[in-house]
Amino acid sequence: MTAGARSSTTVSRAWPVVAGSCSSRRGTRSPSRRLGPLHRGAAHVALRAQAPLLPVVITCEPPTLMKGQKWYDVPSRTAQFTVQVSEPITATDVPAPASAALVARQLTGDLRARFEEKLQHVGA
Fold first, then answer.
1. Which residues contact 36 (CB under 8 A, 6 or more apart)?
2. Euclidean distance between CA atoms 52 and 16, whole angstroms
């Protein structure tokens, strides 16, 4: 590909767009077990692909590799990861506002609500 050329990615309509919540998103480490800010990228991809948004929450018990915690500070017991998959969210679940940006904002809000619901039991 030449400099300045744009690449194009085709998203299949047969597969849902997976949006995940994990304590270490994008290579960062959370200082607490709270859900940080969400971006609307997954919602925009789902809208353009006309695919459902599939909420996935990954939790770790006991928490490990938290911000401020040394990498060699290993918990006394083996960490157990739990993966929870929610029901898909589709754009048809959202009232039809005027623009794609508003629909993406609503989808992201619905996604956050699903994440918070799943994280209630871990004290997030």
1. 25, 30
2. 5
Q: What angle do CA 33, 84, 123 make, to 5 degrees?
A: 25
* pLDDT tens digits for range 18-32: 665 544 444 556 666
Q: What is the DSSP string of 72-120?
A: T---SS--EEEEEE---B-GGGS---SSHHHHHHHHHHHHHHHHHHHHG
Burial class (CB in 10 A: 0-12, 13-18, 19+), 76: exposed
Q: pTM for this one?
A: 0.67
**Neighbouring-strand partners of residue 58:** 83
Tokens of 118: 């799943």
